[in-house]
Design a protein that fits this description.
Elements: E1 2-8, E2 34-45, E3 49-56, E4 77-88, E5 91-102, E6 115-130, E7 133-142, E8 160-171, E9 174-185, E10 194-206, E11 209-218, E12 220-221, E13 224-225, E14 251-262, E15 265-275, E16 282-293, E17 299-310, E18 318-327
Antiparallel strand pairs: 1-2, 2-3, 3-4, 4-5, 5-6, 6-7, 7-8, 8-9, 9-10, 10-11, 11-14, 12-13, 14-15, 15-16, 16-17, 17-18
């Protein structure tokens, strides 16, 4: 078993909107102060299966649909059960049931609910077709109950059923990821839509330099965009977090990245171009930059920036800079 706590405290000025402190005149930094149990579970392991019951971190695949949001100071965790079964040497079945989601906005309610309750079911079947070639078939069924203090867009309208499949593998010298999914409303959602998701990404290394390019589409139907509210959203569609909620016209993200090292310092740059999926709207573009330095075996630091340049009237120019220090004990 495991018991894990987390604490978020304010050091210095608190002139920012934590989503819980009521300072809505400032930009959002969604890290409310507080202390809570992040994980507390029992785990049972057998030869070909294991199960976990309790509060836990749940990450599926690349966390595009379900993840722990480790970027935030208060992780997202789930109350429920997760079981993993190695059905065959080449087939693994991973199922989770969660009746409560502890969101990054907790531990107390604020602008957004700190918790979502409901019957959530996640299943991922991983088939190793051949060495270096995997196909995943998944279903993510999200149900969010109503809360009288919050409107439907912050609660029940996040309920959805998503089905899909993805390929992850290596072809020649290239790392390839491709995915498709279909999503429709579920539970008590007031929405009515069926929207698609597409991803194609290719990456590789040339002379010690990492290169990648991709095209990701969260499509729209009936004025509603494909949404992944339980994902580790900061990993996707730019670090400026402009698309945490998918716009009603959907969004197309074409991106290119380069990474490398200068001595012990790891460097990364990613460029994004954002367009609406169901209209001619140009949302803007973004440049993300990061430099990470492992000072020693205990300390590491990172300087990170996101520069979003808006086109049109839907979004506004946004620049963000982070300097972080991590201590491992």
């Amino acid at each position: 078993g495991l018991v894990e706590f987390d604490n978020v405290s304010v050091v210095g000025p608190d002139d920012y909107n934590s989503t819980e402190n009521g300072k809505t005149q400032y930009p959002v930094v969604a890290d409310p102060k507080g202390t809570e149990v992040n994980q507390a579970y029992l785990k049972y392991t057998m030869d070909t299966a294991n199960g976990i019951y309790g509060r836990q971190r749940i990450n599926y695949s690349n966390q595009r649909f379900v993840g722990g949001v480790a970027w935030r100071q208060n992780e997202q965790s789930f109350d429920g059960f997760r079981g993993n079964w190695q059905m065959l040497d080449s087939v693994n079945v991973d199922y989770s049931y969660a009746y409560r989601v502890h969101r990054v906005f907790g531990p107390d309610d604020g602008t957004n609910p700190a918790q979502w309750s409901g019957d959530n079911n996640f299943v991922y079947v991983d088939w190793k077709v051949a060495e270096g070639h995997n196909i995943g078939v998944f279903g993510y069924f999200i149900e969010v109950d109503s809360q009288h203090s919050y409107p439907a867009p912050k609660t029940v309208n996040n309920s959805s059923d998503s089905y899909g499949l993805e390929y992850v593998g290596r072809i020649a010298m290239l790392d390839v990821r491709a995915a498709y999914a279909s999503q429709s409303e579920a539970g008590d959602s007031e929405l009515n839509y069926t929207a698609d998701y597409y991803l194609a990404e290719v990456g590789g290394t040339l002379a010690g330099i990492g290169l990648k390019g991709g095209y990701e589409v969260l499509a729209s139907d009936n004025g509603v965009g494909f949404a992944t509210p339980l994902a580790t959203l900061h990993k996707f569609q730019g670090w400026a977090d402009k698309f945490l909620s998918t716009p009603g016209d959907g969004v197309e993200d074409m991106y290119f990245g380069v990474s490398g090292a200068l001595g012990p310092v790891k460097l990364e740059a990613v460029y994004h171009d954002f367009q609406a999926e169901s209209s001619s709207e140009d949302f803007g573009d973004e440049l993300d930059l990061a430099a990470s330095w492992p000072v020693n075996e205990y300390f590491s630091t990172q300087l990170k920036a996101a520069l979003f340049n808006a086109d049109g009237d839907v979004y506004t120019d946004t620049n963000k800079v982070w300097l972080t220090l991590q201590l491992k004990i």
